[in-house]
Target: MFS transporter
Amino acid sequence: MSAASTGGPSSSGSDLPPPPASDGTSIPIRQILSWGLWDWGSAAFNAVIVTFVFSVYLTDEVGAELPGSISANTWLGWALGLAGFVIAVLAPVTGQRADAGGRRRASLGVWTSLTVAAMVGLFFVENDYHFLWLGLLLMGLGSIFFEFAEVSYNAMLRQISTPPTIGRVSAFGWAMGYVGGIVLLLICYFGFISPDVGLFGVTFEDAGLSIRVVALVAAAWFALFAIPVLLTVPEIPPGPKADRVGFFASYRVLFRDLGALYRRDRHTVFFLGASALFRDGLAAVFTFGAVLAVTVYGISSDDVILFGIAANVVSAIGALVAGVFDDRLGPKRVIVASLTGMIATAVVLLFVSGPGMFWIFGLILCLFVGPAQSASRTFLARLAPAGHEGQLFGLYATTGRAVSFLAPALFGLFSLIGGDRLGIVGIILVLLAGLLALLPVRPPAPPAAHVPA
Model:
């Protein structure tokens, strides 16, 4: 959950009183802060590597003179699509086995470390198309490792919150991701990218050294802010031995749980499927937005960082304002309105040109991203039956990974057919599919209709 993949209203430390645990004790505030710092640090991968800096460097500089008819943008889309497929196949197993074996914190540490290692490896991707394949490989591996880490990270939410406080704690995480992304992007822009000679004397002319050093800074940032959660949030106890199943048996457990959920409340299953689609579209907006800004709309590689900062601010504001409407009108209406606005704005972007038009309509697009993300989580929280919240949010994460290859793959396909601009159509189709799948889903009861547990 970071600037590239999350959104939510900001929250200050004063809004986060230590929530009472089920046994009447209080959860230490340091655990909540430490958990949020991982989100702050994770912006290094999502905002800097995947969205606004290194992906642009990879497609606009490293792959600029790539021979053949297939563009670097298309190869990036396919690489991330393949990574998404791997995530879809393995994520249910990694999350389930970590929880059953009492290794949630250990799993978070391992996958975070591997993500950081992939980011460090990007330092060796020089400004030459011969290094494009190394960059694509490391981007793909980093995406896989990061998604696995996020499965364990999201599962920790229930450890450092209670039902009455889970919304505020979760919003604190969203806000930390946004602010962390903004701070790090500013450091990267003014410290390394904008100056002709950046900090430590690095320059872009030296085989893209300034951008490669940014990858090292981002890796160090993520590693540093990931440490507190590994030291303060306790490991979960292992589950019963009967729940510790093998690789293939994990899928039987998954399908069994989905079947039981469908028999109990099929609209919840329908929402899981619909949200998996439109969340993939939301992620694609951040993944390919900066790339399109440079290759299609003519924004300079330096200025795209400023756009990224503005996009984070706008998304956070959108989520904050939408929270009011969420409480008054319900999350479904917020999601439907947000997806409709995004689709309409993306259609406009298909036909306009130039940096000015991208700034206007790109930021309008980002205005709807935060509300769609935050209302989606609220929707599921209100659907969750008492005692089954953890299972439901686990399925939420799993179904999201199950189609995480779709938008990148369609972006790559349409880019191959009609150029990079047409890749927008692939994102539109995924958002539209998610919207149409959501329309028949019964919305959750308003908060007043819930009976306190």
Remarks:
- DSSP finds 15 helices and no strands in the chain.
- The radius of gyration is 21 Å.
- Residues 1-25, 386-390, 447-453 have pLDDT under 50 and may be disordered.
